[in-house]
Amino acid sequence: xxxxxxxxxxxxxxxxxxxxxxxxxxxxxxxxxxYEAMPLERLTMLVVPAAGEATLVVPRLEAPRVVDRxxxxxxxxxxxxxxxVARVAGxxxxxxxxxxxxxxxxxxxxxxxxxxxxxxARWQRASTVTGPLRAVKDEHEVAALRRxxxxxxxVAAALQQGDVALVGRTEAEVSAELGARLLAEGHHRVNxxxxxxxxxxxxxxxxxxxxxxxxxxxxxxxxxxTMLTEGGAGYCSxxxxxxxxxxxxxxxxxxxxxxxxxxxxxxxAARVGTTCEAVDAVARGxxxxxxxxxxxxxxxxxxxxxxxxxxxxxxAGNAEPLVAGHAFSIEPGIYTPGRWGxxxxxxxxxxxxxxxxxxxxxxxxxxxxx
Length: 370
Ligand code: ZN
Ligand code: ZN
Ligand code: ZN
Fold this sequence. Notes:
Layout: H1 2-16, E1 20-23, H2 28-33, E2 45-49, E3 54-59, E4 73-78, H3 84-92, E5 99-102, H4 108-117, E6 122-125, H5 127-135, H6 139-160, H7 171-184, E7 189-197, E8 218-228, E9 234-236, E10 239-244, H8 250-269, H9 276-289, E11 301-303, E12 310-314, E13 327-330, E14 333-336, E15 340-343, E16 346-349, E17 356-357, E18 366-367
Parallel strand pairs: 1-5, 3-4, 5-6, 10-18
Antiparallel strand pairs: 1-2, 2-3, 7-8, 8-9, 8-10, 11-12, 13-16, 14-15, 16-17
Helix pairs in contact: 1-5, 3-4, 8-9
């Protein structure tokens, strides 16, 4: 699996005219070799020359965490008094005229020092090489996303069944419980757990706080985390369900019906060959027709994989056609400032046989007595 990814990376490097790829903290490294660099002052960096072996320069004290990948890279541990930047520069070579692609999340302190050591090199972002590859998931990655989605579904089902107490608790308390349930369902990390009650749900990325949930209001819950795979990389879940603590009024019920229809139509439209912007237009068109257009204030979705948000983005202006293996969210919303907000989100994989939805938790606006 990792050897295959490295082969594809080398092919993409050749096509982009990249001589050396340098990966440090961030999602590219775990995607490629199954190892996540610690975000520390000590440099961890994978050096991938166009020709020749890849080398992982890593602090000696972290070397025991690295799982050997024979034929993928060799390990070069350095001690506390060694200079890892000089080590990487040595592996890059003289550097004059070389094109170096460096991981987008690499700390500036290391990039600045490397640029000083390699004055003749040309620099570009590693995502020019890794982005298009990471956006198209292989079967292992789709399986990992499906497992993470199923785990998130179980948490959503618990919420919809009334197993998560809501009324009288704060958003922050419910957020903590959703996070704990994600971990109990097999995630190794919680990335976010938005719980937004009543008027707070009108802010799409609301930070759950001390607001106490009352009866008779919408509670928007949008949560996700990372689930490890045997290959070492973690893949993300991301789901939004809204519940109501008591029968909703007709205003909210009507809006939800329009939202549900738009979301399902956009999922159905997410077929191989359809452009990302066309999928966005389906959700936006239906909500506009229903009179909610100005209240749908964000894109329809984002790609998902080792990162919660990555390519491809389901947004106007993105004319990229979907290909088999693209994984992304479909999450339209309707927001009424000062009063309420609604969003419905599933993760979907574009497959030759049609859109493959990874989330199956009840799509209705469920009334919970909790
Ligand atoms: Zn978001
Ligand atoms: Zn979400
Ligand atoms: Zn999302």
